[in-house]
Design a protein that fits this description.
Blueprint: H1 21-31, H2 44-63, H3 65-69, H4 78-103, H5 109-117, H6 134-155, H7 161-189, H8 193-212, H9 224-229, H10 237-255, E1 265-267, E2 272-274, H11 280-290, H12 294-307, H13 309-331
Antiparallel strand pairs: 1-2
The structure holds fe (ii) ion (2 copies).
The site of one fe (ii) ion (FE2) has 5 residues, from helix 6 and helix 7.
Length: 332
């Protein structure tokens, strides 16, 4: 998902007999669906895994603005421009809630950003694909935000209080994002043959990268068991991917568009669709920095950080002066 490959430290959860008294009490709270709050005791692995997961989620929201921001100046109408602008601003807000949630775990936002810029933290692979035309903005809203919701709705029940509360706010906005994307697709699918062809082409290019958003297959996800035991992760990657396919296929049919998968078939026995897995080789290439836009995205983030240096310095100076003035006022 927005945090696709998260190292939880251990491969398997500890056996009950191997837990310390503190760990046992902690797991009892998790099992009773109690929320864990910042000042509560938590295992170091839980804290570390959450920092990585929430941090990567925050980075994804922020980097996710880039492919869509690219089209704000070229939106076809004033109304579409205003809607896209609002959507991209929402994503900045999501990034900020999430950096704040991560900070409650004792890491600073600057530190998280430095780790991203140094290549030590990642963001979702999906944002390394280019948005070539306006139909892509529709496909991103429909499929990428659609996939994001699939994961984030479940994460509202995650065990860490600040993360779960951030998800509640974010989900309200994500459903608007998905609808605006679907609305663009609908307009284009019902438009001229050229517009319909553009919508189909966007679906062709974004389908498999969207399936990759849920992360590698469960058989290759060595950290899932621990994260699920901690309720940091609620569903497995394959469960969410299946749910996304089952939800999206009828939506594509309604648009009169074809999912680019010859093996896509309703399986009556299982009560869900059979579908072709994405190219996992490509997924690892993109995760490891060799996708079509990795360089461009990181360059944009590094430039934004460098361009903001004067502002951060000015803010820090202003803060210092204000503190001095207040100290003087108290002493006077
Ligand atoms: Fe978002
Ligand atoms: Fe979104």
């Amino acid at each position: 998902m927005y945090a696709q490959v998260i190292d939880s430290g251990g491969k398997q959860p500890k056996r009950p007999d191997d837990l310390s008294a503190e760990e046992k009490a902690f797991m009892q709270r998790i099992d009773a669906n109690e929320k864990i709050e910042p000042k509560d005791w938590m295992p170091e692995g839980y804290r570390r895994t959450l920092i990585r997961q929430i941090g990567q989620h925050a980075h994804s929201e922020v980097v996710g603005q880039l492919p869509e921001g690219n089209w704000i100046t070229r939106a076809p109408t004033l109304e579409r421009k205003a809607i896209l602008l609002a959507k991209v601003q929402d994503e900045a807000g999501h990034g900020l809630y999430l950096y704040c949630a991560a900070e409650t775990l004792g890491v600073s936002r600057d530190d998280l950003i430095q780790r991203l810029l140094a290549g030590d933290m990642k963001y979702s692979s999906i944002f390394n694909y280019p948005t070539l035309n306006w139909a892509d903005i529709g496909a991103v809203g429909w499929l990428v935000d659609g996939a994001a919701i699939m994961n984030q709705v479940a994460l509202q029940r995650t065990s860490y209080g600040p993360y779960s509360r951030a998800m509640v706010r974010i989900c309200k906005e994500e459903s608007f994002h998905q609808r605006q994307g679907y609305d663009i697709m609908m307009k284009m699918a019902q438009g001229t043959p050229e517009q319909k062809a553009m919508a189909q082409d966007a679906l062709n290019r974004f389908w498999y990268p969207s399936l990759m958003m849920f992360g590698p297959p469960d058989s290759d996800s060595v950290h899932t068991a621990q994260s699920m035991a901690w309720k940091i992760k609620i569903n497995t990657n394959d469960e969410l991917r299946q749910r996304f396919v089952d939800q999206t296929v009828p939506q594509a049919e309604y648009l009169g568009l074809t999912i680019p998968d010859d093996n896509l078939r309703w399986n009556d026995e299982r009560g869900e669709y059979d579908f072709t897995q994405p190219d996992w080789e490509e997924f690892w290439q993109v995760i490891n920095g060799y996708g079509p836009c990795n360089r461009e995205r990181m360059d944009a983030r590094i430039k934004a950080w460098d361009d903001g240096a004067w502002f951060r310095e000015a803010l820090a100076e202003h803060g210092k002066k204000r503190a001095q003035r207040q100290a003087k006022a108290v002493n006077a």
